[in-house]
Amino acid sequence: MKQGKLYGVGVGPGDPELMTLKAVRLIETCDVVAVPKGGSGEQTALSIASQWIGDKTILHCDMPMIRDREKLNACHDRAADEICALLDAGKTVVFLTLGDPAVYSTYWYVHRRVEARGYAVEIVPGVPSFCAAAARLGQALCEGSQMLHIIPASHNATKEGLELSGNKVFMKAGRSILEVRDLLEEAGKRDMAALVERCSMEGERVVRDLRELDDPTGYFSVILVREE
Predict the structure, then answer these.
(1) What is the pLDDT of residues 171-187, one digit of tens each?
(2) Can you tell me the distance from the alpha carbon of 171 to that of 152, in angstroms, rounded to the nearest whole number?
(3) Element (H, E) at 171
(4) Is residue 14 a contact partner of residue 199, using CB atoms and an 8 Å limit?
(5) Residue 193, phi-psi category: left (phi > 0), alpha (psi -120 to 50), beta (remainder)
(6) Mean pLDDT of all residues in the chain?
């Protein structure tokens, strides 16, 4: 029996119309759809792609939102085991991920494990949330010779990131949003920043003045900071 293939498919930021034609084709023709179980994006990714999934088998891979590296490695190994078993049976597996699989994606940890075992794998890019947020704000992420930095706000990298020259994207800013706002204030960059929460999804919110923020936002929050 011919061995199957694993595809890591980005479904974009939320609007199904922002999915690529290749992503739709692979979802329609695959045997199994895999999604991370336990992460904030699980049901969202399924919802975005639902009209093309139909009654296909769905593999839920346990991926808890924790920082215990040993436990995470065990989860990633287990997901790779389950997917490799399907590939051995000749199945084509599509692993759904929000945004793009190459940007802070849970899928990447599975991808490199499956590839290291000698299986065929492919990454299918999707529209990243920060690109959609820039479009929603009607502004460029960078122009001319400007640099662009992608910074994980939830990983205590905000202060270090603000010292970098160029425009900045702070991702996963939800629980850390007030801290990010205050650090932007201290750095004199608050007026250069804007936030988009749940971009292109139901409940989308745009905040152009971060002084309006009184409470932490949701997981799907992106802050863009443009230098003068």
Answers:
(1) 987 778 888 899 999 99
(2) 5
(3) strand 167-171
(4) yes
(5) beta
(6) 92
